[in-house]
Amino acid sequence: MSKGADKHKGRLNELNEFGKDLARRSKSHCELCDNHGVKLFIHEVPPVPKQPDFESCIFICETCQGQIEKPKSIDVNYWHCLHTSIWSEVPAVQVMAVLIAKTLAAKADYAAELLDQVYLTEEQQQWIADAEADLLKKK
Ligand SMILES: [Zn+2]
């Protein structure tokens, strides 16, 4: 096995250790769309830290994850769930919801309205700025 693959596996193992706590925090509901009774995946909110960090992980369903990974094919009608998740008590969920709303804002009035309403701490604003810089780098 290559070194890169080893490293990847190590990270996944570390992330999987968060699984139990994430299941508890989310009550096994997708933290973005509230879907339940489906398999949930650990998603690291960008910028991904060198060491896996529980506070930057969210627990989400396959549909949400697929949409996040392919922002170009994002479905405007799917994300009305942001009306709830953008007010999450979990900072990482709020940050991810804002990042998605920003992707949608040009196409969806409701997303632009949510961005006007949402209250973010300075720390979260910095997090979002860092995430956007990180996402740009990957383009
Ligand atoms: Zn979901």
Gist of the model:
The chain has 139 residues and is mostly helical. It is 53% helix and 7% strand. The protein has helices at 3-16, 19-26, 62-69, 82-85, 91-104, 109-117, 122-138, and strands spanning 40-44, 57-61.
Summarize this structure as a short list of keywords or feature phrases.
139 residues; mainly alpha; binds zinc ion; 2 strands; two-stranded antiparallel sheet
Each distinct ligand? zinc ion
Biggest sheet details: 2 strands, antiparallel
Counted up, domains total 1
The succession of helices and strands, N to C, reads HHEEHHHHH
**Beta strands, count:** 2
What Rg, in angstroms, do the CA atoms define? 15 Å
Provide the spatial order of strands within the biggest beta sheet.
Answer: 1-2
User: What low-confidence regions span 5 or more consecutive residues with pLDDT below 50?
Assistant: none
Number of H/I helices: 7
What distance lies between the first and last C-alpha atoms, to the nearest angstrom? 28 Å
Q: For the residues shown, what is the average pLDDT?
A: 94
Helix fraction by DSSP (H/I, runs of at least 4): 40-55%
Task: Explain what the structure shows.
- With 139 residues, the chain is mostly helical.
- The chain contains seven helices and two strands, in the order H-H-E-E-H-H-H-H-H.
- It has helices at residues 3-16, 19-26, 62-69, 82-85, 91-104, 109-117, 122-138; strands at residues 40-44, 57-61.
- It has a two-stranded antiparallel ribbon with strand order 1-2.
- Helix 5 crosses helix 6 and helix 5 packs across helix 7.
- The protein is globular, with a radius of gyration of 15 Å.
- 25% of the residues are buried.
- It binds zinc ion.
- Zinc ion (ZN) is lined by residues 30, 32-33, 35, 60-61, 63-64.
